[in-house]
Amino acid sequence: MFRSATPFRTRRSRIGGFSMVELAVSLTVLMVLTAIAIPSLMHSFRTYQLNDTAARLSDMLKFTRFEAVRRNKQINFLIAASGNDWIAGTDSNNNGTIDLIEKQTRISGVITLLPSGVAPSPGSILAKLGATSSLDASISGAAGSVTFDARGAVSPLAAYVFYLGSPSGPDFGYRAVILLPSGATQIWTAPAGGPWRRTG
Fold it and tell me: Hey, which of 26, 28, 135, 161 has its CA 20 to 30 A from 16?
């Protein structure tokens, strides 16, 4: 028995794929959704970068403190400029520089150390720390050192603040890593206009 090939061709042409109109509509919808999602994704990515940099800086301070206690001697935490980046690390041999074999972290890219006055005022941080407290921001955004004594306390006793953020993108907010006189660290966060709140 001979069958006509016409029904086969018709069925095949119906399941062949998208028409040009369907493809154009689909691409338009995809582009609109992408345009809506990109700002949210960028904000989430910058928030992640801020949190990660603050956590790494805090961890480096904690490592230097524990190294001082473990070795039972004064150990310095150093911050040094490296081009447009910053190197923060433990000066285990106390020679005044961060050697390649010493533990260190690089602060680079969009997120950087900021000098005092760029980030929101630390008034809300000081209110939580106590009326007589003060924060030394002299090595935030500048090369310098902090010394931990053999007990793990800051020597001489002082509270330091390290501001982190993006100079070109204040809309992403700021982070402050606080080093207390006892050697303990705290992480604070603030939107562009403040106020600060403790997150870690």
Answer: 28
Identify whether the C-beta of residue 75 lies closer than 8 Å to the C-beta of residue 101. no
Mean pLDDT confidence for 146-175: 90
Assigned token pair, 200: 């870690």
The parent domain of residue 14 ranges over 6-198
Task: State the pLDDT at residue 3.
Answer: 56
Indicate the pTM of the whole model: 0.80
Q: How far apart are CA 86 and CA 160, in angstroms?
A: 17
* Rounded alpha-carbon distances, angstroms, from residue 132 to 44, 102, 120, 127, 170: 36, 36, 20, 9, 30
Phi, psi (deg, nearest 5) at residue 48: -60, -45
Rounded (10°) CA dihedral 60, 134, 132, 177:
-30
pLDDT single digits (tens) 34-68: 778 777 787 788 889 999 999 999 999 999 999 99
Q: How many domains does the chain have?
A: 1
List C-alpha distances in Å: 64 to 3, 51, 197. 86, 20, 25
Q: 190 - beta bridge partners?
A: 174
Q: 117: domain CATH number?
A: 3.55.40.10
Residue 83 located in a structural domain: yes
12/24 Cα distance (integer angstroms): 23
Q: In terms of Cα–Cα distance, which of 81, 71, 73, 80 is closest to 147?
A: 73
